[in-house]
Every structure is written in C-alpha cells, then in structure tokens.
Amino acid sequence: MDQLGGPNPQRLSSFIRRRRDAILETWKAQVRSLSPARGLSDPVLIDHIPHLLEYIADVASGAITGAAVPRTLRGMPGCHALSRLGQGYDLADVVQEYATLRTVLLDLWEREGSGDGAGGGRILLNKAIDDAIADAVTRYQDARVRLLQVLERISIAALGSSDMDTFLGALLRATRQAAAAVDVAILLLRDGDAFEVQASAGLEDDPLRGAVIDAARELARAVLDAGQPCSLDEVLGSAPGAARALRSRGLRAVYGVPLLHEARPLGVTVFGSRSADELSEEDILMLRTMTSRANALILQAQLAAKERAAMREADDARALLEEVIEQMPAGVIIAERGTGRVLLKNRQAAAIAGRPLDAARGIEDYAAEAGFHPDTGEPYERSEWPLARAVTAGEVVRDEEIEVLRGDGTRRRILVCASPVRDPDGRVSAGVATIFDVTERTRSAQAQRFLAAASAALSDSLDFDDTLGRLGRLAVPELADWCVVHTLPEAEAARRVLVTHARPEEVRRARALLRRLDPPPELAARMEQVLRGERAELLRDLSRPRPLLALLGEQRARALVRELGLRSAMLVPLIARGRAFGSILLATAESGRLYDEADLAVARDLAQRAALAADNARLYAAAQRAIELRDKVLATVSHDLRNPLSAIITATAVLTRRAAARGEDRADAKAIEAIQRSAHRMDRLIHDLLDFASLRAGRLALSRKPQDPREIVREAVETFEPLALEKGVRLGATSDDDVPLIPCDRDRMLQVLSNLLSNALKVTEPGGAVSVRCERRAEHVVFSVADTGPGIPEDELPHLFERFWRGQRNGYKGTGLGLAIARELVVAHGGTLGVESRVGEGSTFRFTIPVGDVER
Questions:
Q1: Which residue among 376, 570, 747, 851 sits deepest, i.e. has the most Cβ atoms within 10 Å of its Cβ?
Q2: Given phi > 0 = left and psi -120 to 50 = alpha, else beta, which region is 466?
C-alpha cells in the first residue's frame, strides 16, 4: 500500500520482472503434471509464458497509472490459447495453466514478504490474470469453433474423395475458407529428393508454370531443412529466387508448413496472401493445426492411392496371367500354398478333366479326380497328385503320366508337370501344374509297340493253329478281355470258334453260353457280312445294349452282357490277299474299357497282320505237303530207276570187255564209253536224289565213330591228286597238331569234302591252287576248302545251297544237289556250312563238326 493505503502496482510489476526466472521454473515444474504438457519440450511448454508475465506486469501497472499495455503484448493471452489449442490442450488445461501461474505468483509474493496487509497486490494480480483468462477463453473458443469447422471440411473432403488428387484439392479449398487471409495454397509432396505439385487452390486464373513451380519447390526444401513452419521472410536468405518469383505473383505474405508423419517428411504446404503483409497468429495456428491434422489423412490417401495402384497392377497382372494361360496349349492349374485351393485354371485344364475344377477348395477335394497309376491301375491318393506334392512339400514333378477317368466316363492319359512357386526368401507361395492330354500319342505308341510285337510273334510261327492261338493270346489282355476267332470252312475242313480269356474257367463258361445262345438269323447275317469281309463292326457301349437288341433279341442280348459282363465289342474280318477266311471278335468286360474308332483301327491292323500270318502258315503247310509229295515221287522214281540203270552199267562193262578182246572199231568203243559215262552220271544223280530225300525225311542213317579229321583230309586229297595233276592245279593240305577226334560218319565226311574239292578243281584254272585245312576252334573242328577260281557274285551267295540251283556266272556245273546235300550232311552232324567269296579272288567253303564226347 502507498502512503494513502492504496495498492502499489510498481512493487507488483517489479516483483514479477525481478523473479521471472524463479516463477517460470516453479510454474514449469507444477504444470508438468497436466496430461498435454508431458510430451512437450521445455521451450514449447514455456512458449508464451514469459510474454504473459510481462503482460500481467503491464496490466497491474496500468490499472493504477492508466498506462496502456504495449501492442505487442495486448493479444498475448489469446496467442497463448491458440498455441495450446494447436498442441492439443483442452480449454480446462489452458485455464489450469493460468490458475497454476496465479498460485505460483501469490506463493512467491507472500514468501518474499512483499504482500501488503490490505491485499491490494493480490487484487491487482488476480485482476490481471482474470483478464488474461477471459481473453484466452474467448480466443480459444472462437478458434476451436473455426477449427472444428475446418476439420469437418477436411473429413468431408477425405470421405468424399475417391482418389488422392481430388482429396488434396478439397483439402486446400477447405484451408482457404478457414483462413480468410489465405488466397493461394500449394501442396507439394516429396518424391525421393524431388518435390511435385500435387494440388493447388487460388490459382485457377493464373496456373503455376515455370519459375513459379521451381520457386515453390525451393521454398519447400528450405522449410524441410528448417524442420518447422516458416514464413518466406524467415528463409529469405536460403531461398532468394523463390522469394522473387512468388512475390511476382502478387503474394505479400508467404508461409510454408512441413507435412510430417512420425518425423517422416511427406511434403510441404505453401500458403500465400495477396491482401495481408503477414498472417495472423490465429491464421498461422489454423494452418499449422490443419496441416498437422491432415498429415495422417494425406499419408492414408497416399497409401490408399498406392494400394489402388497396386491393386490395379495386380488386377492387370492377373488378367495378363489369365490371358497367357488361356493361350497356352496345355492345361494349367495354379493352387494355393499348403491348402491346394485352386486359384487359377484355364479352359484346357477343365476340358482335359471333363469336369469343372471350381469345386477344388483344397487338397482334400483332389480325391474327386479319379486318377490311376498306369503301370499298376491303383488309384491316386489325394496327396499323391503332383500339384499336392508341389504345394505341400515343394517337390518338382516332371513328366508324370496318369490315367484319369473323365466326367463323361471316358479314360484318358495325361502328362503332368508340377512345380512350387517360391517367394524371394525361397518359401513356397503357390504351386503350378501343366497338363497335357497325351492319350492319342500314348495310344499310338502303345499300338505301334503292340502291333510290332504282334508281327514278331505271329511271323515266328508257320503253323496255322498255333498262329490263331497266338492271335488270341496277343489280344488278351492288351487289347481285350475276350477274343473269339471264327474261321470259314474254306480255311479249314469246318468252321471253328477259338475263344481266349485270361482265365481258363471263363473260356469254358463262355463256350457253354455260346452253345446255349444259338445266334438268330439277324446276327448270323451280320456275322456273315463281317466274315465275308464286307465291313468291321464297333459296338461301343454294351451297357446300353441297343445294338445287341437288334442282333440277338432282348433276352439273348441281356443274358450275354449280364453273364459275361461285356462292356464294349469290335468285330473285324480276317482278310488276306483279297480273301476273307474268318473274323475276330474283341470285347471288354472287367477292365471297363470302352472302344472307339482308334481301337477299331488297331483291331483292323492286328487282323490284317494276323490274317497274313495265318495265310502264310496255311500256304507254308500246303507247300510243305507239295514238297513232301514231290520228294516221295522222286524217291520212288529214283528207286525204280536203279535196277534198269544197274543193268545198263553192267551191260556196257561187258560190251567194253568184248570190244577190247575182239579189237573192234574204235568208234564203237567210244560209243560204248559215252553210254557208260552217262549211266554213271545218272547213277550219281539217283544216289544224290535218294540221299537228299533221306536227309529231308530224317531217314538217313549215320554211322558215327571217332575219326581223325587229319586222316579224312589226307584221304580226300589223295583221291583228287591225279585230277589236279592232270589239270595243272596245285593241291595241298594242312592240319593243326592239336586237332582232336570227332564223332562222325567217315564216308559222309569224305562225301562232303569230295563235293567241295570237285567243285574247286572244276573252277580253278591251270596254275591255280586249291588248299584243304582242318583246325580246332573252341568246341568244333573246322574244315575249309579254298580255291583261286573266279569267285562267286555276291547276289548268288544266298542261293548257293538251295536244291537244284546253279549259278550262271560262277563256272560251277552239275545237278545243283551237291552243295545242298553237303549242307544237309553237315547239319545232320550238328555243324554248319558256309562260304566266303570275292569275285576275281576265289572262294573258301568252311564247315564245322562238333567235338562232342569223343575226348571225354
């Protein structure tokens, strides 16, 4: 109190200014307990409080003296309230800060003893703080209402926008409406180190271009470098070019606010005013608050835009992938990791499966796909499918063949490849399988293998009955479960039916059934058509026995299908050389197979090969019978000619002796000698014919005894030495020392060597050579006769040992039986006879005789 008892404002003002630091420290410590203050730094927390203390001191002083509060301090309570509003304070928190400040001031005032008894200082202090609170509350409420309106506009902009550009434009328009002094707003978003203008407002009549855009980018960099909202004047030194360019657009006040989300810079919003030299604290607070609140929405909008772009890219990629797999010639299925749920598939996959694939929600549904192992016929377990193995175990499956039962009941062969799809970390993210229908290729290859094996098996026999039996065994079970072969009487003495099945008891049951079901006239006529080679019949599905009903009648048809379990059948004629001699009935039963046109083509091919083989067997049998008859005739004629020929030989010998005794004319002697030579040639021919007939019939008796091959060679050579000497041909023989004894008929061995030596001497010119050799090779003794004659043409070698065959150019003359008999004699001893020859170099004949048991 002064001398008159009134309050002393100078003392209060002096106290506040003198103890400012203590007041601030005490106040700061006490307001930290307020919830909004806990996350603020000291400078941000203290903020306007020093200026508020000056304001309170000036208000207290002016209340007595009538002095006005300086203009710079006049709006400080309101500025403080706006700042706290931007920092998230409620109005109660703002009022509590003033209450705390009041308590601190009064407490320090009293403790310092500066208080007056009448409490005049308290009155002044309370009045100053009450005035500040009133101003702060008013400004806080007004700003809060405006801020809520702006936030509502921002929310409406966010909810009403389908893309980020639309949202940002609405955001800037809402900002201009909230801050009356703001005429221009430019939002720049960061893209790496660059800034791109994403939206603007207030420039509709004067769009941004060139230097102005560069200026906005330069200002944005300066604001982000400062790390806080800045006016153009504050960053003028670091962005002089920006200042000139922006001011050239008539902007008097320019302010930049960074867009930050968790310290991550998103961009900068530039606000400009053409009407004000600077923005008010309330406008700046509004811009900062709106920008702060918009950060999350902008980030959300960016993420949403990226998500939409990613979804578009994903949709485009999926559409491209779908288009690609639709264009692929194979079936393609892509399944989810672990579960095996089908994510993508193409039409080819569904077409191959013969059913929709949408129902496959997981691996457990794979069991619905009827697949079988081709080699065993065992069904595929759901976990065995290649795609299931790829998505669960990461297995790569290559070229696995599977027999599948399609939705339409047909069986197909598919080739499957499957592989896991791995993410960059190597984890399985999906699985993909490609499917090729290789039914036709597989069937074609199987058919070719089957027909090749059939040709080999059928051609291996020249017996008619055995050929038909092989036909049935070939067809069952490779091509059919049942095979019935019918033959016409023209092929055999009577019509015959040959039934084949894998189980003999089924064959007996079928024969009994066929005897019981006498074919009606309709079936007999149809079978006769097939037997006569008019056409083949395909009865594809006998479970609907409509074709059989027309042929057998309902009772017979159902009995045949029921008792034999027939499913499908083919009836194919056996035609050889334009003549039908039978038919093949092929039918399926327990295998469940349904025939089609491809099967009918295989059956036709098999029937053709079987018909040729059977006809060859029939012709061979007929030829063998004719040969046997001819050999019998020759043997009989030869035997009957021996007696008169012996008489002729005897008579010519008597005539020769008489002519010599009487000394008759030399001409008569020559005639007698000619008759004698001819008789001897005829005798040798008859002997050859009889020998050959005996050999062919297996009636030639061999007197086998251990013989020394070297002695046989020596004797044969000595026999032909005079002839060789007479002709001027060198004849020699060599033998190895280790040649063993052999079991043989000595006379027949001499006959073979004599035949070969005789031929060799005939073709060898004077001065040439003929050599005979015997040696041991493994378990055989090899005899060879080599000459230096003209050689034998290559095309004649295959026919050299045929009966009655004589070459036209090799110089060999004779009956054509010598070499054939020699080979048969060697074969009868268990050996072989062959020849090596080159034209102009000569020939070498070799034959082998096994050692046998002689050495043992």
A1: 570
A2: alpha
- The structure tokens 């090779």 sit at 777
Give all strands of the β-sheet with 730-735 in edge-to-edge order. 730-735, 769-777, 780-787, 842-850, 833-838
pTM for the model stands at 0.48
**What is the rounded average pLDDT for all residues in the chain?**
78
Determine how many CB atoms are found less than 10 A away from the CB of residue 553. Answer: 15
Q: Using an 8 Å Cβ cutoff, are 239 and 208 in contact?
A: no
Distance CA 166, CA 170 (A): 6
β-pairing, 331-336 vs 769-777, is: unpaired
What is the Cα–Cα distance from 228 to 242, expressed in whole angstroms?
18
Q: What is the pLDDT of residues 328-365, one digit of tens each?
A: 888 898 888 888 888 888 888 888 877 776 655 677 77
Torsion over CA: 616, 618, 624, 626 (sign): negative
- Residue in this structure with the two tokens 């057998």, named with its chain if needed: 552
d(CA 260, CA 245): 26
Token digits of residue 507: 């064959």
Beta carbons within 10 angstroms of residue 722's beta carbon: 10
Give the total residue count for the chain: 856
Tokens of residue 485, six digits = 């072969």
What b/e readout covers 350-362, taking b as 16+ CB neighbours within 10 angstroms? bebbeeebeebeb
Place of tokens 């073709």: 763
List all residues 6 or more positions away from 514 whose beta carbon is below 8 Å from its beta carbon: 497, 499
Find the helix packing angle between 164-178 and 120-159, rounded to 10°.
150
Q: Are 418 and 386 in contact (CB under 8 A)?
A: yes
Q: Decide if 57 contacts 17 (C-beta within 8 A).
A: yes
For the stretch 474-514, pLDDT in tens is 888 888 888 888 776 654 544 567 888 888 888 777 777 66
* Interstrand relation of 428-437 and 411-422 (parallel, antiparallel or unpaired): antiparallel
- Rounded Cα–Cα distance for residues 801 and 821 (Å): 8
> In 10 A of CB 761, how many CB atoms?
19
